[in-house]
Design a protein that fits this description.
Layout: H1 8-42, E1 50-56, H2 59-68, E2 119-129, E3 138-153, E4 156-169, E5 172-184, E6 205-209, H3 213-222, H4 233-239, H5 249-263, E7 268-275, E8 285-291, E9 297-303, E10 309-317
Helix pairs in contact: 2-3
Length: 318
């Protein structure tokens, strides 16, 4: 008895059917990827958007940051210069509680573009100091979305948003800063971390800091930073898949500022930094610096307990 469709032509029809069925997920994934690419390209429409704000360099704010950094400074007074790098506690993003996203950040799509990728991290910045800020100053910020760049990385698609900011005091322009924010896909379970990189120099300046949850919480409170990876242990471990609370990249950068400010003979004129690896609470961070022979520049860095590079920076001095 011959089974219908069991001949050569029937076999071809069966194979064609199987191939067409098996190709459905592939076609769906391709369409999804194409739609994602189109959505990401539309984010470039945010380039050129601007935002303005006013803030104040107050005595309590400066005192609280000094305490967070474990400094035994005298009580600040109006007119005192704000230490280099401490401007980053100014101008936090303030939104109503109903406008906070599931990760603790303000919902996307106001000033910053609505990037449809789940992970958001501070990637780095470049800061030029023109003049000092002083305690008691009313300061103004003018920011603009300078660039939105789409890249493919080891863990998938990434979007880099670059924000350029000018901060002025009553005496004029005080500093110009470009900050990079990276959005990326969540890595697949079991994805290994990136290969470690060594420190870029020989440490002439060195310090070790072990951040604990209280230090992270106090810094988040100072900067009104609601990102849950810095204080919500169940969220950061179960939802985002990190082993522990994540060290704040801005705080690491500030610690590098402090290292250079402590050891350099002249003030910082320019500093660029790049965060390359996550670090976690209750683990020692080794800060290092190597000045150039003429002391006009320095390499700066932070490494994790295994000696892997987590932040790299370069400073120029006046």
């Amino acid at each position: 008895m011959k089974i219908p469709g069991s001949g050569e032509s029937g076999l071809h029809r069966v194979l064609d059917l199987r191939l067409s069925v098996s190709s459905v997920p592939s076609v769906a994934n391709e369409l999804k990827a194409e739609r994602m690419t189109q959505d990401l390209e539309q984010l470039k429409e945010w380039i050129g958007r601007t935002e303005s704000a006013v803030d104040y360099v107050t005595v309590p704010l400066v005192r609280r940051l000094a305490a967070t950094l474990d400094r035994d400074d005298p009580m600040p007074k109006p007119g005192d210069p704000l230490p280099i790098g401490w401007h980053q506690i100014l101008f936090p993003r303030v939104v109503r509680h109903s406008q906070v996203g599931p990760d603790g950040h303000p919902q996307r799509g106001d000033f910053l573009p609505p990037v449809p990728l789940p992970r958001r991290m501070f990637a780095g910045k470049r800061t030029t100091f023109h003049a000092e800020l002083r305690v008691g100053d009313e300061v103004r910020r003018e920011s603009v979305i300078k660039d939105v760049a789409i890249k493919e990385g080891r863990t998938g698609t990434m979007v880099f948003v670059t924000v350029k900011t000018d901060i002025t005091s009553p005496r004029g322009l005080a500093l110009t800063e470009e900050q990079d924010i990276v959005y990326r896909e969540a890595p697949a379970p079991g994805t290994p971390p990136p290969p470690p990189q060594p420190a870029p120099g020989r440490a002439v300046w060195a310090r070790t800091v072990t951040p604990d949850p209280v230090m992270l919480f106090r810094y988040s409170a100072l900067t009104f930073n609601g990102h849950r990876i810095h204080y919500d242990h169940p969220y950061v471990t179960k939802i985002e898949g990190y082993p522990d609370l994540v060290m704040n990249g801005g705080l690491t950068t500030l610690l590098v500022f402090e290292l250079a400010r402590t050891h350099a003979s002249t003030p910082i004129r320019y500093l660029s930094s790049r965060n390359v690896r996550a670090m976690f609470v209750n683990q020692p961070i080794t800060l290092g610096g190597e000045p150039s022979p003429d002391n006009k520049t320095a390499k700066l860095w932070a490494t994790d307990p295994d000696g892997a590079l987590a932040l790299t920076a370069e400073a120029e001095f006046k």
